[in-house]
Amino acid sequence: MGNIINGKEIAKCLKNDIRKFAEDKKNQGSRVPCLATITVGQDGGSIYYVNSQIKLCKDLGLEPKHFSLDESITEEELINLIEKLNNDKSIDGIMLQLPLPKHIHEKEVSSKINHKKDIDGLTDINLGRFYKGEKAFVPCTANSALELIKNTGVKIQGKRVVVLGRSNIVGKPSAQLLLNENATVTICHSKTENLKEVCKEADILVVAIGRPQSVGKDYIKEGAVVIDVGTSSVNGKITGDVIFDEVLEIASFVSPVPGGVGSMTTTLLMNNLCEAFKENVY
Amino acid sequence: MGNIINGKEIAKCLKNDIRKFAEDKKNQGSRVPCLATITVGQDGGSIYYVNSQIKLCKDLGLEPKHFSLDESITEEELINLIEKLNNDKSIDGIMLQLPLPKHIHEKEVSSKINHKKDIDGLTDINLGRFYKGEKAFVPCTANSALELIKNTGVKIQGKRVVVLGRSNIVGKPSAQLLLNENATVTICHSKTENLKEVCKEADILVVAIGRPQSVGKDYIKEGAVVIDVGTSSVNGKITGDVIFDEVLEIASFVSPVPGGVGSMTTTLLMNNLCEAFKENVY
Lengths: 282, 282
What we know:
Two copies of one chain form a homodimer.
Chain A: E1 3-4, H1 7-27, E2 34-40, H2 44-59, E3 63-69, H3 75-87, E4 93-96, H4 106-110, H5 124-132, H6 140-152, E5 160-164, H7 171-180, E6 184-188, H8 195-200, E7 204-207, E8 225-228, E9 232-234, E10 237-239, H9 244-250, E11 253-254, H10 262-281
Parallel strand pairs in A: 1-11, 2-3, 2-4, 5-6, 5-7, 7-8, 8-11
Antiparallel strand pairs in A: 9-10
Helix pairs in contact in A: 1-10, 6-7, 6-10
Domain Tetrahydrofolate dehydrogenase/cyclohydrolase catalytic (chains A, B): 5-120
Family (chains A, B): Belongs to the tetrahydrofolate dehydrogenase/cyclohydrolase family.
Subunit structure (chains A, B): Homodimer.
């Protein structure tokens, strides 16, 4: 019987560190890290996410500044706002909530965010630097998967890691992060032959395919660490890709959904904000 | 006994295509693709490479423009030249030969090349786009490895590929290119445990570690395709990473050194130049 990885508990430690950092800044008479969030229109998902970001920001003693724009805004006006925020020394990070209305070119506009304030790690420059192994902001979900693995205390260097899924925001960056930790990394996907056998080679398995309850014990090597990044909504309930109970019987560690990877992501975003602040201020 | 992959022959076909493209442009009264090459100082390697680029350029009916700068040039002057070439509509590709003299920040200066003219695929923006699976210029050595594999006719999709080495210009982009072809890709490196066993899983093995004659038959699965990207100089002779004769006994295809990957790279650079031309002109 394996151990359940407690994402909330790990996030709590990081939250305390961030809170302490913000307090210290305040006590030193300095400003605290400031996050600019932008929403365009009334997309329900965007508003939910931005509200949780603002709430966590305040809770940690950081400063949120929200810009709620009308759906009818032009691309030029939105770019002007981003450029204003890029040049504003009192703003450390910029989060543009996606999706944007159809008349705005999402890629075009996102790419305008200064890479030094792109704390979600989505600009081409940040991605390029990340893949070269240089200092860069990393997409938070991938980073969260890595943090949960590190927290188990299991050795990563030299071990076989299999990442199931190759999305730009989870699969590929998770593989890169684990390669940076000197793991031997294999990326699997829908076209992989003998998928179960390949997954069974993994000392550490990261599952990010978005197919709920699709990875059972026949994918798992005994004693493996299993990180479930899946978050599908099934009958209104957030559900992971891994069949938790049966995998837990074989694995050494399994991250649950909810309570695993997702519990860390917004906190890691705030941690990136503090990193951007350090670069911006000093 | 396996087949020897003939890089020169494959390059020849691509050269003919490029020559035909340039001829067609000329016949249509259009200008031909133009490559700007820049050398700073008298580094022997740089001069050797730039001369071979210029020679091939002319041979294919493309236009080379060479800028030979004095070692004492300032960073600002070099950046000014790059920006002039960026804005020059008659220039399609820019190759800045590295290394640069020590007083010039290589990364800083390279990043100034407009990503649309960065036919060597080294700017952060190009890399970021490439890793997202978007249209981008790809480092030519990695691309050469892929072309040699494709030329064997062996199925790539779903197959196990092992890339041995994780450099930014060969290992990582080769892995990404093969992932784009729907292979199941594993990246190995100096910290990999049980290296021989992992390599033996490969239907296709790409070796790029730069340790001459270090990969013998005990790394090879019977019938595998083996691509040798190693180019070390041993007693003045270019030598690959693979022990060619013994690996050829087991593999289905092996690329030799010289005559393999290296025979394609400059031609692929010229192919990128033609792609840049198409984007620039139309």
